[in-house]
Design a protein that fits this description.
The protein is of the alpha+beta class. It contains eleven helices and ten strands. The strands form two sheets. Strands 1, 4, 5, 6, 7, 8 and 9 form a seven-stranded antiparallel beta sheet that branches.
């Protein structure tokens, strides 16, 4: 053990394991990591239900194909979030200030921070790039064990959001290896903490505006034009046609398959069902006539189930070596899901009570 490590060990506990919540969305790290910390606070779900509603699809920079799906939400790393404390530090500056990354990251964890930092996944066990290719990708540290000389982290292992361990020496190599990686560069390190800066109850006005944008396939960036110029993307229900075009290209062998859009689409429907339940709990949905709470829940759950089936159908396409046949079943599910969801959200928008 070096002198630096010995001094740090004397100052911090032998073992720290910070808690993690099960995130509502785990498709991409920009959602999974922050929601894993944010959702330790039960009240955060109202902010999530008010914001994680709109979808967008836009060209992937490396292929210019319209297949990259994502939630369109305030970017946690760029905008204020009422449920997180976030410190952004240039990782090279952090390295120059702290010296040994193991000691510095261990100290941050001991102080209750979750470090989110890029690592060269060539040195990260369990990742697709481990011992195969130098590839930079963010990980979230949430603990360490001095006796085992290892950090506990969350990342994408065998294609799934999961938790694992990485030894101190491997982490040093993964930090140093970033110099051998190409883009994306990920220049920053973030120290994350759960923190309620101010209460945020579910906002029926924001939900109503989001649903209207989603159903109208409107560019939600127009709402923020005072901060940035709106970017031309597909929004809302138009993403179904983007997914259809992408699936047909994959089936024809004209595009590389990525199962994440289909998974994210299912997560969107699952969260929509949770949003409906939360609106009902708060009495924000009118229950006139025969449309009782059980009816709303049944319809929302049926949409989520169709999303799950669509994901399963896409995975068949993803796994099939020969992709020459058109994905007819997948196309039918896309049409069914779009029709069912449009009907549900149109009725929900009409029944939504908003403050006077």
């Amino acid at each position: 053990m070096s002198a630096v490590e010995a001094a740090a060990t004397a100052a911090v506990p032998e073992r720290v394991r910070l808690p993690l919540a099960a995130p509502s969305i785990d498709s991409y790290p920009q959602h999974a990591y922050y929601l894993s910390v944010m959702q330790l606070q039960p009240g955060a779900i109202d902010w999530i239900c008010s914001n994680y509603l709109q979808l967008s699809a836009f060209p992937a920079p490396e292929t210019d194909e319209l297949f990259f799906f994502d939630f369109f939400v305030p970017e946690i790393e760029k905008h204020i979030n009422p449920w997180l404390s976030l410190q952004k530090i240039d990782r090279r500056y952090f390295a120059a200030l702290t010296g040994d990354p193991v000691a510095a990251l261990r100290d941050a964890l001991a102080r209750g921070h979750y470090p989110k930092l890029p690592l060269d996944e060539f040195h990260v066990p369990g990742t697709d790039s481990h011992q195969r290719a130098h590839y930079p990708h963010p990980s979230l540290l949430h603990g360490y064990d001095e006796q085992a000389r290892a950090f506990e982290f969350s990342g994408y292992l065998q294609g799934r959001y999961a938790q694992a361990r990485i030894g101190y020496d491997a982490l040093r190599r993964a930090v140093d290896g970033l110099a051998e990686c190409g883009p994306p560069e990920y220049p920053d390190l973030f120290l994350v903490k759960p923190q309620c800066n101010w209460p945020y109850p579910l906002d029926p006005v924001a939900v109503g505006e989001g649903i209207a944008d989603y159903l109208g396939a409107r560019n939600s960036m127009a709402r923020y034009r005072t901060m940035m110029s709106p970017v031309d993307m597909r929004f809302g229900v138009d993403v179904y046609e983007a997914l259809r075009s992408y699936a047909l290209a994959v089936a024809a062998g004209a595009a590389r398959s990525n199962p994440l859009p289909a998974h994210l689409l299912y997560e969107h429907k699952r969260l929509m069902a949770r949003r409906v339940r939360r609106l009902l709990e708060l009495g924000a949905v009118g229950l006139a006539g025969a449309a009782g709470a059980d009816d709303w829940i049944a319809r929302a759950d049926a949409v989520a189930e169709l999303g799950l089936r669509l994901r399963a159908e896409y995975l068949k396409l993803h796994r099939r070596p020969q992709r020459s046949a058109p994905p007819d079943a997948l196309e039918r599910l896309i049409d069914r899901l779009r029709a069912s969801e449009t009907a549900l959200l149109g009725d929900l928008l009409a029944a939504l009570k908003t403050p006077a």
